[in-house]
Design a protein that fits this description.
The structure holds two protein chains of two kinds.
Chain A: E1 3-5, E2 10-14, E3 19-21, E4 24-26, E5 32-38, E6 44-50, E7 56-58, E8 64-68, E9 73-78, E10 87-94, E11 103-104, E12 108-113
Parallel strand pairs in A: 2-12
Antiparallel strand pairs in A: 1-4, 3-9, 5-6, 5-10, 7-8, 8-9, 10-11, 10-12
Chain B: E1 4-7, E2 10-13, E3 19-25, E4 32-38, E5 44-51, E6 57-58, E7 67-73, E8 76-81, E9 90-97, E10 105-107, E11 111-115
Parallel strand pairs in B: 2-11
Antiparallel strand pairs in B: 1-3, 3-8, 4-5, 4-9, 5-6, 7-8, 9-10, 9-11
Classes of the chains: A mainly beta, B mainly beta.
Chain lengths: ~110, ~120
Protein backbone atom coordinates (compact mmCIF):
# COMPACT_ATOMS: atom_id res chain seq x y z
CA UNK A 1 0.00 0.00 0.00
CA UNK A 2 1.05 3.58 -0.54
CA UNK A 3 0.71 6.59 1.70
CA UNK A 4 1.67 10.23 1.78
CA UNK A 5 2.70 12.35 4.74
CA UNK A 6 2.65 16.11 4.66
CA UNK A 7 4.52 17.07 7.78
CA UNK A 8 3.31 20.65 8.06
CA UNK A 9 -0.40 21.35 8.32
CA UNK A 10 0.10 25.13 8.26
CA UNK A 11 2.93 27.22 6.85
CA UNK A 12 2.92 31.01 7.27
CA UNK A 13 5.49 32.90 5.23
CA UNK A 14 6.10 36.54 4.42
CA UNK A 15 5.58 37.81 0.90
CA UNK A 16 8.64 37.46 -1.37
CA UNK A 17 10.25 34.96 1.01
CA UNK A 18 11.09 31.41 -0.13
CA UNK A 19 8.95 28.48 0.93
CA UNK A 20 9.26 24.70 1.08
CA UNK A 21 6.29 22.41 1.62
CA UNK A 22 7.33 18.93 2.65
CA UNK A 23 5.98 15.65 1.33
CA UNK A 24 7.14 12.13 2.12
CA UNK A 25 5.70 8.97 0.68
CA UNK A 26 5.89 5.28 1.35
CA UNK A 27 5.62 2.68 -1.36
CA UNK A 28 7.16 -0.64 -2.23
CA UNK A 29 6.70 -0.11 -5.97
CA UNK A 30 7.57 2.58 -8.48
CA UNK A 31 5.52 5.72 -8.05
CA UNK A 32 4.20 8.80 -9.74
CA UNK A 33 4.09 11.94 -7.60
CA UNK A 34 1.92 15.02 -7.87
CA UNK A 35 1.36 18.38 -6.23
CA UNK A 36 -2.05 20.01 -6.47
CA UNK A 37 -3.23 23.42 -5.24
CA UNK A 38 -6.73 24.16 -4.02
CA UNK A 39 -8.06 27.70 -3.66
CA UNK A 40 -11.07 28.27 -1.37
CA UNK A 41 -14.25 26.57 -2.55
CA UNK A 42 -12.58 25.33 -5.70
CA UNK A 43 -11.37 22.02 -7.05
CA UNK A 44 -7.76 20.95 -7.35
CA UNK A 45 -5.39 22.36 -9.92
CA UNK A 46 -2.30 20.42 -10.97
CA UNK A 47 0.91 22.27 -10.10
CA UNK A 48 3.43 19.69 -11.26
CA UNK A 49 4.07 15.99 -11.52
CA UNK A 50 6.90 13.50 -11.56
CA UNK A 51 6.46 10.44 -13.74
CA UNK A 52 10.04 9.59 -14.72
CA UNK A 53 13.26 11.18 -15.93
CA UNK A 54 14.74 14.29 -14.36
CA UNK A 55 14.20 14.40 -10.62
CA UNK A 56 13.78 18.19 -10.63
CA UNK A 57 10.35 19.06 -11.89
CA UNK A 58 9.19 22.55 -12.74
CA UNK A 59 5.53 23.46 -12.59
CA UNK A 60 3.22 26.40 -12.98
CA UNK A 61 3.32 29.65 -11.01
CA UNK A 62 7.06 29.35 -10.36
CA UNK A 63 6.86 26.19 -8.27
CA UNK A 64 9.27 23.28 -8.52
CA UNK A 65 9.75 19.98 -6.71
CA UNK A 66 12.52 17.45 -6.43
CA UNK A 67 12.00 13.72 -6.34
CA UNK A 68 14.42 12.09 -3.89
CA UNK A 69 14.09 8.33 -4.02
CA UNK A 70 16.54 7.59 -1.20
CA UNK A 71 14.66 9.91 1.15
CA UNK A 72 11.25 9.06 -0.33
CA UNK A 73 10.47 12.74 -0.56
CA UNK A 74 8.93 15.14 -3.06
CA UNK A 75 9.19 18.57 -1.47
CA UNK A 76 7.63 21.59 -3.16
CA UNK A 77 9.56 24.85 -3.35
CA UNK A 78 9.16 28.41 -4.54
CA UNK A 79 11.94 31.01 -4.27
CA UNK A 80 9.64 33.99 -3.76
CA UNK A 81 5.97 33.71 -2.83
CA UNK A 82 3.12 36.09 -3.62
CA UNK A 83 -0.09 36.85 -1.78
CA UNK A 84 -1.93 34.93 -4.48
CA UNK A 85 -0.11 31.73 -3.49
CA UNK A 86 -2.19 31.54 -0.30
CA UNK A 87 -4.03 28.23 -0.69
CA UNK A 88 -4.15 24.59 0.35
CA UNK A 89 -1.52 22.33 -1.19
CA UNK A 90 -1.88 18.58 -1.56
CA UNK A 91 0.76 16.00 -2.36
CA UNK A 92 -0.41 12.77 -3.99
CA UNK A 93 1.12 9.46 -5.02
CA UNK A 94 -0.02 6.80 -7.44
CA UNK A 95 1.47 3.78 -9.11
CA UNK A 96 0.74 1.85 -12.30
CA UNK A 97 1.46 -1.27 -10.27
CA UNK A 98 -1.53 -0.68 -8.02
CA UNK A 99 -4.23 0.45 -10.41
CA UNK A 100 -3.22 4.11 -10.57
CA UNK A 101 -5.28 4.99 -7.52
CA UNK A 102 -4.35 8.34 -6.00
CA UNK A 103 -3.41 8.61 -2.34
CA UNK A 104 -3.47 12.16 -1.00
CA UNK A 105 -1.70 13.74 1.93
CA UNK A 106 -3.67 15.71 4.47
CA UNK A 107 -2.69 19.00 2.91
CA UNK A 108 -0.62 22.03 3.88
CA UNK A 109 -2.25 25.40 4.29
CA UNK A 110 0.11 28.08 2.97
CA UNK A 111 -0.58 31.61 4.18
CA UNK A 112 1.42 34.43 2.64
CA UNK A 113 1.69 37.42 4.95
CA UNK A 114 1.96 40.90 3.39
CA UNK B 1 -7.15 21.70 -22.46
CA UNK B 2 -8.10 18.96 -19.96
CA UNK B 3 -11.04 20.78 -18.40
CA UNK B 4 -13.47 19.04 -16.09
CA UNK B 5 -16.74 20.65 -15.10
CA UNK B 6 -19.21 19.88 -12.35
CA UNK B 7 -22.82 20.85 -12.04
CA UNK B 8 -24.23 22.22 -9.86
CA UNK B 9 -21.52 24.11 -8.00
CA UNK B 10 -23.73 24.48 -4.95
CA UNK B 11 -26.93 22.73 -3.93
CA UNK B 12 -29.12 22.94 -0.85
CA UNK B 13 -31.74 20.27 -0.33
CA UNK B 14 -34.10 18.98 2.30
CA UNK B 15 -33.37 15.85 4.27
CA UNK B 16 -34.76 12.77 2.55
CA UNK B 17 -34.49 14.06 -0.99
CA UNK B 18 -32.05 12.92 -3.66
CA UNK B 19 -29.44 15.06 -5.38
CA UNK B 20 -27.65 14.40 -8.65
CA UNK B 21 -24.19 15.83 -9.38
CA UNK B 22 -22.76 15.78 -12.89
CA UNK B 23 -19.10 15.53 -13.83
CA UNK B 24 -18.08 16.20 -17.42
CA UNK B 25 -14.77 16.09 -19.23
CA UNK B 26 -15.16 18.95 -21.69
CA UNK B 27 -12.35 18.42 -24.15
CA UNK B 28 -11.20 14.84 -23.72
CA UNK B 29 -12.57 11.37 -23.29
CA UNK B 30 -12.36 9.68 -19.93
CA UNK B 31 -13.15 6.01 -19.51
CA UNK B 32 -12.28 6.38 -15.84
CA UNK B 33 -13.53 9.06 -13.49
CA UNK B 34 -13.25 9.33 -9.74
CA UNK B 35 -15.49 10.73 -7.02
CA UNK B 36 -14.01 12.22 -3.87
CA UNK B 37 -15.47 13.70 -0.74
CA UNK B 38 -13.71 16.43 1.18
CA UNK B 39 -14.51 17.39 4.76
CA UNK B 40 -13.64 20.87 6.08
CA UNK B 41 -9.89 21.35 6.41
CA UNK B 42 -9.33 17.71 5.49
CA UNK B 43 -7.87 15.84 2.58
CA UNK B 44 -9.77 14.18 -0.21
CA UNK B 45 -11.34 10.81 0.47
CA UNK B 46 -11.81 8.59 -2.57
CA UNK B 47 -15.38 7.34 -2.65
CA UNK B 48 -15.48 5.37 -5.85
CA UNK B 49 -13.95 4.79 -9.25
CA UNK B 50 -16.38 5.21 -12.11
CA UNK B 51 -15.82 3.21 -15.29
CA UNK B 52 -17.72 3.87 -18.49
CA UNK B 53 -20.02 1.02 -19.35
CA UNK B 54 -19.51 -0.93 -16.17
CA UNK B 55 -20.30 -0.78 -12.49
CA UNK B 56 -18.43 1.61 -10.25
CA UNK B 57 -15.90 0.33 -7.77
CA UNK B 58 -16.60 1.64 -4.29
CA UNK B 59 -14.08 2.13 -1.52
CA UNK B 60 -14.52 0.34 1.75
CA UNK B 61 -17.12 1.99 3.94
CA UNK B 62 -18.91 3.81 1.13
CA UNK B 63 -22.54 2.75 0.69
CA UNK B 64 -23.12 2.00 -2.97
CA UNK B 65 -26.90 2.14 -2.58
CA UNK B 66 -26.68 5.61 -1.09
CA UNK B 67 -24.14 7.04 -3.51
CA UNK B 68 -25.26 5.90 -6.95
CA UNK B 69 -22.76 6.35 -9.74
CA UNK B 70 -23.55 6.17 -13.43
CA UNK B 71 -20.91 6.58 -16.15
CA UNK B 72 -23.09 6.58 -19.25
CA UNK B 73 -20.63 8.05 -21.73
CA UNK B 74 -16.93 8.76 -22.16
CA UNK B 75 -17.44 12.34 -21.01
CA UNK B 76 -20.07 12.13 -18.29
CA UNK B 77 -20.32 10.54 -14.86
CA UNK B 78 -23.06 11.27 -12.35
CA UNK B 79 -23.19 10.86 -8.58
CA UNK B 80 -26.63 10.68 -6.98
CA UNK B 81 -26.87 11.07 -3.24
CA UNK B 82 -30.08 9.26 -2.35
CA UNK B 83 -32.23 10.06 0.69
CA UNK B 84 -29.75 12.71 1.76
CA UNK B 85 -29.21 13.48 5.42
CA UNK B 86 -27.39 16.37 7.09
CA UNK B 87 -24.30 14.19 7.61
CA UNK B 88 -24.02 13.92 3.83
CA UNK B 89 -23.31 17.64 3.66
CA UNK B 90 -19.85 17.98 2.19
CA UNK B 91 -17.74 19.12 -0.74
CA UNK B 92 -17.84 16.55 -3.53
CA UNK B 93 -15.10 16.63 -6.16
CA UNK B 94 -14.79 14.54 -9.29
CA UNK B 95 -11.73 13.89 -11.41
CA UNK B 96 -11.13 12.33 -14.79
CA UNK B 97 -8.22 10.46 -16.27
CA UNK B 98 -7.63 11.22 -19.93
CA UNK B 99 -7.84 8.19 -22.22
CA UNK B 100 -4.46 7.55 -23.78
CA UNK B 101 -2.79 10.05 -21.51
CA UNK B 102 -0.55 9.70 -18.50
CA UNK B 103 -1.67 8.89 -15.00
CA UNK B 104 -2.66 12.49 -14.30
CA UNK B 105 -6.12 13.14 -12.91
CA UNK B 106 -7.87 16.38 -13.83
CA UNK B 107 -10.22 17.71 -11.20
CA UNK B 108 -13.55 19.43 -11.40
CA UNK B 109 -14.29 22.57 -9.38
CA UNK B 110 -16.34 20.69 -6.80
CA UNK B 111 -19.95 20.72 -5.63
CA UNK B 112 -20.92 22.03 -2.19
CA UNK B 113 -23.87 19.98 -0.90
CA UNK B 114 -25.81 21.22 2.10
CA UNK B 115 -28.60 19.05 3.47
CA UNK B 116 -31.01 20.79 5.79
Amino acid sequence: AQSVTQLDSQVPVFEEAPVELRCNYSSSVSVYLFWYVQYPNQGLQLLLKYLSGSTLVKGINGFEAEFNKSQTSFHLRKPSVHISDTAEYFCAVSSPNTGNQFYFGTGTSLTVIP
Amino acid sequence: GAVVSQHPSRVICKSGTSVKIECRSLDFQATTMFWYRQFPKKSLMLMATSNEGSKATYEQGVEKDKFLINHASLTLSTLTVTSAHPEDSSFYICSARMDGGTDTQYFGPGTRLTVL
